[in-house]
Description:
This protein is mainly alpha-helical. The protein has two helices and no strands.
Amino acid sequence: MKIDLIPAWVYWIVIACGQQLRVSGLQVDIATEKQSRSDENADRFRVAMQWQQYVDDKETAHTIAQQTKDNEYAKAYKKWEADRAIDTANANRLRGTIEAFAASGRRPGESDAAFIERIGNRLKTIGGLLAGGADMVTESLGIIERRDLEVVRLAEQIKIDRSACSKSNSPPE
Length: 173
């Protein structure tokens, strides 16, 4: 006859309690893992929002700087156009003066008619060439000044773009 000091059902209760403790421990581990993942996601979201704000601020600063330079270029271009109009008017005035002088090359009462005719034709041709040269110089200067404005504008744009992309403008940590 076998005597059981501890009945079999007690073993089952102890095993069930042990399993219950093990399951409870696993549930706590799962809850802790969920909480840490939730905290991690919140941190990622916070960093993403900071980054987005940083990018938005950089884009805004870049846009403002670019708009300022574009406005300066537009003002300089209008001034250039006004200067070109003045230079063109001066060239036209010079052309008129030269043509008037060339036309007055034949004065009545000169002694040799053929000589005076040749001189008159030469003066007219020289006057036309001088006036055309003045027009070309005015136009050339205008083109060079306009290109200079455009180069300055592009150089400023490159400077703005480089400052926006430089390492000194590092993102927030």
